[in-house]
Amino acid sequence: MGTSLIAKKDRLPRCRIYIHHLREKEYHMSNYPIDVSNFHETLLRLKGMVSVESSVENLEPIDREMLSLSDYAHLPHATLRRTNGGLENEVFLQFEFEIERSEEGLVALEFISWFVRDQARGGNTIQLRPFALPPETPYGRQLGTTLKFHIDLFIDGVVDTLEPAFAKIRELDASLHLAMRLYQIPVKP
Q: pTM for the whole thing?
């Protein structure tokens, strides 16, 4: 039996559930859905990967006008503008990760960039985007400290359970494991 959605679309206009926040040293203590935890662990095995955080969101109530609000800054604006918002029975899974500012971090980013592009070419509705906060705030300059990357995964046909999303994450994790072995990608001991 699948995990139930926390809120039905008609009762909650915006439903964002943080599934997981995981830092490199914490991944063995996860109490989150096993499929998400496994995918996080796989990403964190890459040398140069620092942290992973995930969320799932119902995109159906999102429209063009909402995208200008700061609460929606994390969403893939260009994608949602093309469809004038979220689609019916579609959820959005986002894996936000941070890399080391090192050669290993850049190698991990390049590999993940290829992997996501390859998955998209294979038919998955997935993309990779950079994400950063404004260069300055009333609290000071933050340029050079906020760069992260988002793996955006869109799953349709999600009605009563998140199981279709978990199944897709299992597939991605298996493919990522295979690619890491096949291409001998540097991993942590």
A: 0.80
